[in-house]
């Protein structure tokens, strides 16, 4: 079985949900501009019988005039197979945001309009020159097809590969036209830099249905232009029929969690649309607010409930398409019916079947209560208040005295650091605190011979680092927790920005302030307070944007990886043998026990070694990761294990770190005996001969 919970970017899970729902909505809605009669009329009677949601629903009308969407090569507009839909919707699981760059990018339509004005001026000048030279006039419409603007209709855009043919037809093969084309190529390249060769999609309006808690229930996209194909919509004309259809579908098939339902009351964020819906919404048994909505914002308990929309583990259909139920034995995996459950139960080979994993997953689910046992009080008040720019400082002043003992829980650390238990900073501090826990607790337990707690300097490699490098400033907390250790962190991984490769900078701390030196151009002061005792402390940061097995340099004291997922990336099959050859202590975190088991299997395949028994990380993230196709408890950095290297046999390699062997007992020297008279001391004659 394969689960990607906790590994995919959260934004992509959200995007997969949006596009999955929108694709179903478009398929059932039919062609844009069709009458409300038909299947949507039939829905009215059914919607009137739906249970009532006590929450207020809102229909938002979000206009967009400045941002366009440019589709890359191989992408198709619309909710179909374009934008790499198979990858986006989960068929090719570990997907990251950077993987979307070949498919989609955002462009400024304001720049495009400036370029359009310049192009029109160029066209007028070109026609005047043609009239003066007596050459055959080239139709401007044909010439504009080479770089259509965002306001042109899709029919005016040539399909890819046909621009050159259309240009030849317009020119008729005359020499004068070839000269004009040559002259046009010599013009400044500013126009080409403003827009791509194909017009961007213009998302003119977004219709969004939510409830008062922020749960997204449905969306509709109104797109003006497309690249070489028909558009999805036609601007903002006739908005009321589309909004009414969207409301019907959102009630009958809500995107967010929950069963089909209708709202107690609906408010609309557009005055004109509000008037047009006054005669339609009551037909659904829904009360429309008397006046349009003026302002709206999510309540303090806003949690993006739409992310809880589940999918079948086998066919990936969402909960708004089919009814999902967990396995009756383990309650861990979700299926849409008996057919998918049996297909997963009988997978081959046996070790990937649900029959093999069912008892193991049941044991993982039983630890949900233990994983959730954390001291935070996020339910009392707004947990994100401290993250607002005009709120109090994110981190309090550094305590004047270093910690007297070692921390083993969030409760102890928060108390010493002066943090309130409703502060969400644990979501970020889980990374430096996990490193701290490995250094102070786990390495002394597993590798006592290294005497790591008495080292004055440590070189640590953070492998397959991605978002951890984006949060590099939070590792400054290590200077607070380990004030007498000179630390060097080297972030390694091919997911790091290529422009950061071989960078080396220093986080320097003078009292409560932190700054970044050596040309990085970044500075930060995360806290303010009294002058701290002690001298300046430095945290050296190095970056190597490459897989770990290609890294050259001195051996580190410690290797750490966060939420590694050995089985989800092929480079681990080379990086793990590299760690086997270095034989340094290597600790990794995982978001679930399932991930730890899979990492152990990958380690065995790659090196013949294994992994230690995972330990619960007391400094795990407090926010549970909502899985799509299962009900297992997932938390960032939930468990920690270390690599167990295969013993070296006759290779001359240094054995893996472990308990120091007992020192050999010295043998008793033989008793001295008296020499007989006349007997010479041994070796004396030899020394004389020398």
Notes on the protein architecture:
- The radius of gyration is 33 Å and the shape is globular.
- It has 690 residues and is an alpha/beta fold.
- Helix content is 30%, strand content 16%.
- Strands 10, 11, 12, 13, 14, 15, 16, 17, 18, 19 and 22 form an eleven-stranded mixed β-sheet that branches. The protein has a five-stranded mixed β-sheet with strand order 5-4-1-6-7.
- Among the domains are: 1-70 and 101-111 and 199-225 and 237-295 and 303-323, no CATH class; 324-372, no CATH class; 410-519 and 537-644, Rossmann fold (3-Layer(aba) Sandwich).
- It is built from 20 helices and 22 strands.
- Mean pLDDT is 74; it is low at 74-95, 112-117, 131-197, 226-235, 519-535, 658-671 and 683-690.
- GO terms for molecular function: histone deacetylase binding; zinc ion binding.
- InterPro entries: Mss51-like_C, ZMY15, Znf_MYND.
Give the name of the CATH architecture of the domain at 410-519 and 537-644.
3-Layer(aba) Sandwich
Please, how many helices? 20
Q: Using DSSP, what is the number of strands?
A: 22
The coarse silhouette is: globular
Query: First CA to last CA: what distance?
Result: 79 Å
The largest β sheet comes out as: 11 strands, mixed
Spell out the key features of this protein.
690 residues, alpha/beta, Rossmann fold, eleven-stranded mixed β-sheet, five-stranded mixed β-sheet, 22 strands, 16% strand, globular, disordered C terminus
